[in-house]
Design brief:
The structure holds 2 protein chains of 2 kinds. By secondary structure, chain A is mostly helical. In chain A, about 70% of the residues lie in helices and about 0% in strands. Chain A has one domain. In chain A, helix 4 runs antiparallel to helix 6. Chain A is elongated and about 75 Å long. Chain A starts with 14 loop residues before the first helix and ends with a helix. The mean pLDDT of chain A is about 90. By secondary structure, chain B is α/β, with parallel strands linked by helices. Chain B has a 6-stranded mixed beta sheet, with helices on both faces. Chain B has a 4-stranded antiparallel beta sheet with strand order 11-12-10-13, covered by helices on one side. Chain B has a 3-stranded antiparallel beta sheet with strand order 2-1-4, covered by helices on one side. In chain B, a hairpin with a 2-residue loop joins strand 8 and strand 9. Classes of the chains: A mainly alpha, B alpha/beta. The interface between A and B is large, with 38 and 47 residues.
């Protein structure tokens, strides 16, 4: 080896180089493949079980039955594993020390973060949309095959629900990434995610019934997945568009807070 | 070339690096010596842009690290032997690193070969021994063929063969004209590897000098004299202004004169000389002497252990 074997290209590193490396980072971890496989398998299993359980009831049971929401139930699994995946995407770098290698290679912290978020968002949106459509077709297939009320993509609100559910789960993943960026360790980030998504609703029910509709799980279940209004009494769920926007704001807030800390703190 | 100017870093009330100014020139191995907790790693992290200084600057070729156009092509840093994901293979670790700086992927196999990891390139790096991890870390530093290299304790945990390999490797990099900055608390290792030394204690600069100067400055120049004519020799030596004290094994330790003058005295006065040896302080002695006030964590009973060459 002698000095200047390598000719440096002109200019300097940019976000596209970092995006390429982040893609390689993501696909060269076996945990990524395991999570994708398990999420798909369990998600579809849940949809299969839930739709199957909705077969062979009497006419009255189907009052207010929403075949679209029923067929998307398995995406809840993706919501949970997405939270774990999003957190690990950044906390794995801290626990292994890879973050120091990453920042040595590309010290521009906003560039590194932008690339990471772009890759994570693209990957989770693609995966969640595919799973959402798969779950919908599986569930509605089981329902119609069993003679229960079913839906197709042409049914009112169905396509909107399927697409938005995939996006919503992706946003939950990004929110968890933001938590990971803030606390920098997997256990803390996953605990925060589970706290916000699964524990906060219990607390909120006790404090304010009308506040419950602003929580991620309730937005997902009552505004996003559904095509039939799930309102109770005079408390109406958020409209699908507002619900998705609220979730986007949560994700953006978590990532922004994390980004500020990431840029300021010692690595 | 690495330069730091008034580099300062505080953690709460503690000052880890205190107004540190030094430079690391190209073409030489510069050793970075200091007791544990003296701020070596923090200094290196600031040079690499990982930690932010409270004041002062650390520059590489005149630029702060985060302004380098292609960092891996300009600087290679090994700050942490395990800075990779344990589940990723060695080859994949180097692949993503190469992509960040548009480094041709053929370099991945070249550097794996250079550090002797070709046969385990597709094994998960988490399964590597400490020595193999160090080699992977070293492979990453040379991936972009950089002109400046930093290594924090690169021989930690290596076997003698590995230590020898690293030593030759570092000297080879410097011989090619690169800037090589290597921290260690293993003083004897530095005496074999380094040309220059930057010595710090409690975050402050203690010495910035060549290895030979460093040894010479601290307590070199004494002479060991073995003679049966102790009494006349002592008075003759005292008469020319030398200081005489009892050395080990019945010898005398003479300071403030040279072997040549002692030989002349012996010839003039007809005194018998059985042994006449210049005592060169070891680098370790010099280090202990200079950092004795700057050791952060010293057990109260350690004075004796330190004097007899305790590693810390």
């Amino acid at each position: 080896m002698s000095q200047a074997v390598l000719e440096a290209p002109t200019g300097h590193y940019r976000v596209n180089q970092v995006i390429k490396s982040e893609i390689v980072k993501m696909v060269t971890l076996r945990s990524t493949a395991i999570m994708v496989g398990l999420t798909a398998a369990f998600g579809l299993l849940v949809t299969g079980l839930v739709t199957n359980a909705a077969l062979h009831h009497n006419q009255g049971w189907y009052a207010g039955f929403d075949p679209t929401a029923n067929s998307l139930t398995g995406l809840i699994v993706a919501g949970l594993t997405g939270g774990v995946f999003g957190a690990l995407l950044i906390t794995g770098e801290y626990s292994s020390g890879t973050i120091r290698a990453s920042l040595s290679a590309t010290p521009g912290r906003t560039v590194l973060l932008a690339a990471k978020i772009a890759v994570a968002t693209a990957a989770t949106v693609i995966f969640c949309e595919v799973l959402s459509f798969a779950s919908f077709f599986l569930g509605t297939g089981i329902l119609s095959g069993g003679g229960a009320p079913s839906a197709g993509l042409g049914s009112p609100g169905a396509l909107r629900a399927v697409i938005m559910t995939g996006l919503f789960i992706a946003l939950m993943t990004i929110m968890s990434f933001g938590f990971g960026l803030i606390v920098r360790n997997a256990a803390g980030a996953i605990a925060s995610f589970v706290g916000v998504v699964f524990v906060l609703p219990l607390v909120m029910h006790a404090i304010s019934e009308s506040g419950v509709r602003y929580l991620p799980t309730n937005i997902l279940a009552n505004s996003i997945m559904t095509t039939v209004n799930q309102g109770q009494g005079n408390i109406q769920p958020l409209s699908p568009a507002v619900g998705l926007l609220v979730m986007a704001i949560y994700a953006a807030a978590a990532v922004s807070a994390g980004a500020v800390l990431f840029v300021r703190r010692d690595a | 070339m690495i330069t730091t100017h008034s580099l300062t870093k505080r953690f709460g009330a503690a000052t880890a690096v205190d107004n540190l100014t030094f430079e690391v020139p190209p073409g030489l191995v510069t050793g970075f010596l200091g007791p544990n907790g003296s701020g070596k790693s923090t200094t290196m992290r600031m040079i690499m842009g990982l930690d932010y200084p409270d004041s002062g600057s650390a520059l590489i070729g005149g630029k702060p690290y985060n302004e380098l156009a292609w960092p891996l092509r300009e600087v290679g840093g090994l700050l942490d032997a395990k800075a990779f994901h344990p589940a990723r293979t060695a080859r994949n670790h180097l692949r993503w690193l190469a992509l960040t700086n548009d480094i041709p992927l053929r370099r991945v196999d070249e550097v794996l070969d250079q550090v002797g990891l070709t046969s385990v390139a597709n094994r998960r790096a988490g399964k590597f021994s400490l020595g193999m991890s160090q080699r992977l870390g070293i492979a990453a530093t040379i991936l972009g063929d950089p002109g400046v290299l930093l290594f924090d304790e690169p021989v930690n945990g290596l076997d003698p063969e590995g230590i020898r390999w690293v030593r030759h490797f570092l000297r080879g990099l410097a011989a090619e004209g690169r800037t090589v900055f290597v921290s260690s608390h293993l003083i004897s290792e530095m005496s074999l590897t380094a040309d220059r030394l930057v010595v710090i204690g409690r975050g402050r600069l203690i010495a910035e000098t060549s290895v030979s100067d460093f040894v010479h400055r601290s307590g070199g120049g004494a002479v060991r004299l073995v003679t049966p004519d102790t009494v006349p020799f002592t008075s003759a030596l005292t008469a020319i202004g030398a200081r005489v004290s009892d050395g080990d094994g019945g010898s005398l330790t003479v300071e403030g004169t040279t072997t040549q003058r002692i030989g002349d005295l012996a010839a003039r006065d007809g005194l018998r000389v059985y042994e006449l040896t210049p005592i060169t302080a070891s680098l370790e002695d010099a280090f202990m002497e200079l950092t004795k006030d700057a050791v952060e964590y010293r057990p109260s009973v350690m004075a004796g252990a330190a004097a007899s060459g305790g590693k810390e």
